[in-house]
Design brief:
The chain has 13 helices and no strands. With 323 residues, it is mostly helical. The chain has one domain. Helix 4 packs antiparallel against helix 5.
Length: 323
């Protein structure tokens, strides 16, 4: 086994840190600078017209609350494995966000959290992060389903019969999966997954669900209030149902975190276009949501990435497992 000198290891770690942060900032800048759908002139005119210190503070507060709830979710789950402080959970969550911003479907986020733990705990950390993200996905699907039903009923986007068939297929799929839950593929099965989930204390799981619901309500209503601030005057149920539809459909599309606003923006253009909302407003709000809830936290997370001091091969291992 080849031994790498200590100074060489330090240099390699520094290089990886700079690479992660550099890639994150490059992708962010590239998306903002080269998006020809962003009309900054119109944005400045509308911003000057409706600027409000209270309104801006409120929107920023929702961004802070959104990220803080995600941190609390991680703190709640990981404390089952190893008691940590909220400050430590903040460091792990933000550093992981930075690491995952330019990786497919945020795969880097799993590795970004795992490197803060011993190599022997890698699988458990990845599993807990999967549970954290999984509950958010499930909640997005539940809220999105009701939103899609409401929106389709009023605007005939998808026929009610087709929606009913879709739900029937989904229910049938779940029934089939659970009926064959003992079938093992490469050592994994649904039964084993359920057993692993049940090992987590019920109180921890309940808190995770509660925080997930609260977080969903925060970021979906931040989207809603941004539309109001851009003079989009639509009934609450109509607007919020469109928002839930956007998150629901966009969540199933493979993407990079750094392209998240483009994916959600494309889906949003379809739904809000039906409502007659100006295209540039939809694009701008999608971009603002991305900037406030992904870019700003990732910038803060870059500080924790650059100050990370432990050398571990976990990053490469987890990335390989996920792919």
């Amino acid at each position: 086994m080849i031994s790498i000198p200590h100074k060489t290891k330090q240099f390699l770690v520094l290089l990886i840190k700079l690479l992660i942060v550099g890639c994150a900032f490059y992708f962010i800048y590239n998306q903002l600078a080269n998006n020809d759908k962003l009309d900054w002139a119109q944005f400045l005119v509308l911003f000057k017209k409706n600027q409000s210190v209270t309104g801006i503070a409120f929107i920023l507060l929702l961004s802070v609350l959104n990220r803080y709830l995600e941190i609390l979710k991680w703190h709640n789950l990981v404390s089952y494995l190893k008691p940590i402080s909220v400050a430590e959970a903040t460091k792990q969550a933000l550093a992981a966000l930075t690491a995952g911003i330019f990786t497919p479907n945020g795969v880097g986020e799993y590795a970004g959290k795992a490197i803060f733990f011993d190599k022997s705990e890698t699988k458990k950390v990845v599993f807990l992060n999967l549970i954290s993200n999984g509950i958010q996905m499930i909640l997005t699907a539940i809220f999105g389903t009701f939103g899609l039903l409401y929106f389709s009923t009023h605007y005939n986007v998808i026929a009610t019969k087709k929606v009913a068939i879709l739900f029937g297929v989904l229910i049938l799929t779940f029934i089939v999966l659970f009926s064959i839950k003992k079938i093992t593929i490469k050592g994994y099965s649904i039964e084993k997954l359920i057993r692993k989930i049940n090992e987590i204390p019920k109180r921890t799981q309940q808190k995770n669900i509660f925080l997930g619901i609260f977080r969903y309500l925060v970021f979906s209503h931040q989207y809603y209030f941004l539309f109001l601030s851009f003079d989009v005057d639509l009934p609450y149920l109509t607007l919020i149902s469109a928002v839930t539809c956007v998150y629901f459909l966009a969540s199933f599309l493979p993407t990079f975190q750094v392209l998240d606003f483009a994916v959600k923006g494309s889906v949003a253009l379809f739904f809000f276009g039906i409502l007659g909302v100006n295209e540039w407003i939809v694009v701008f709000i999608s971009t603002l949501m991305w900037f406030l809830n992904v870019v700003l936290p990732a910038i803060i997370g870059s500080y924790y990435v650059l100050n990370f001091k432990i050398i571990t091969p976990t990053l490469a291992k987890v990335a390989g497992d996920e792919t």
